[in-house]
From TrEMBL:
Domain CN hydrolase span(s) in chain numbering: 12-257
Lipid metabolism listed as a keyword: no
Protein name stated in the entry: Carbon-nitrogen hydrolase family protein
Annotated keywords: Hydrolase
Keyword DNA-binding attached: no
InterPro entries cross-referenced by the UniProt entry: C-N_Hydrolase (IPR003010), C-N_Hydrolase_sf (IPR036526)
GO function terms (MF aspect): hydrolase activity
PANTHER family for this protein: DEAMINATED GLUTATHIONE AMIDASE, NITRILASE-RELATED
């Protein structure tokens, strides 16, 4: 297939699921996800992105151990069945119980219902004391992953990142240098709309790729914490082309991956990198 043919028609239908997962209702959360996935499937989605820790965030109850399960496991089996029924990719994160500890892991499920890859969140949410959040350290309960993830799909190369990873631009540069044209970001991002929007736009524009980012929405149960919601699609020029409103919903959009090649032809930023100057990046 030539470059011109790729640019002519590389449309992909993406759906983003945005909802509020309760820490004390894992089964209800999964049932809601299944219902929303069916909506996405009925819309002919090629790819569906779920929020981060969609079976329960453990932020309210601190019950990540109780929520954790193996991958493959009961929850991924249910998602695999839906992916197979509708012929779509599904990605979103949940707590994984593994020999090395508990991980915040995003499995990528293929159209045939197989698990193609699994990315373990590598940059955990360990902020200092902040005026907008109670003290919290994800690393108190979760083990960080030790690798990044770029996967070949039938529509192009896709990178995976999770929530606070978005604050580390090296991840997205790595994905772009490995040929990713699209990065999916499951998230339970706190209610900093300004940060959420400009970080998504910056990661897309800097690396000239699409960002497809899902977030929890609403208030965390029994807590002062709210989630930003506003799940979005950002194109390689940094333009928000689709954005969810402040409610539980399925946001569906058609993207043209040919736009990646087009924008990079306007100014291929990564071809002008000078790594020999960036001596501090190896620290």
């Amino acid at each position: 297939m030539t470059a011109g043919e790729r640019t002519a028609d590389r449309s992909v239908t993406v759906s983003i699921i945005q909802f509020n997962a309760r820490d004390d209702a894992k089964d209800d959360n999964i049932e809601k996800v299944e219902s929303l996935l069916r909506i996405a499937g009925q819309r002919g989605s090629d790819l569906c992105v779920l929020p981060e820790v969609f079976t329960g965030s453990a932020l309210a109850l601190g019950n990540s151990l109780e929520l954790a399960e193996p991958i493959p496991g009961p929850t991924t089996e249910r998602l695999c069945a839906i992916a197979r029924t509708y012929g779509m990719y599904i990605v979103g994160s949940l707590y994984e119980a593994a020999s090395g500890g508990i991980y915040n892991t995003a499995p990528l499920i293929g159209r045939d219902g197989s698990i193609l890859a699994a990315y373990r969140k590598s940059h955990l949410f360990d902020p200092g004391v902040r005026p907008d959040l109670p003290v919290y350290r994800e690393s108190d309960k979760v083990t960080p992953g030790d690798g990044l993830c770029v996967v070949d799909t039938d529509f192009g190369r896709m990178g995976i990142a999770i929530c606070s990873d978005i604050r580390f631009p090296e991840i997205f540069l790595n994905h772009a240098l490995q040929g990713a044209e699209l990065v999916v970001l499951p998230s339970a991002f706190p209610a900093r709309l300004d940060h959420w929007e400009f970080l998504n736009r910056a990661r897309a524009a800097d690396n000239q790729l699409f960002m497809v980012s899902s977030g929890m929405v609403g208030k965390l149960q029994d807590s002062s914490i709210s989630f930003v919601g506003r799940s979005m699609v950002v194109d390689p020029w940094g333009v928000i082309t689709a954005q969810a409103s402040d409610r539980e919903m399925v946001l569906t959009s058609v993207i043209d991956l040919g736009a990646v090649e087009l924008v990079r032809s306007w100014w291929d930023l990564n071809s002008q990198r000078r790594p020999e100057l960036y001596t501090a990046l190896g620290r």
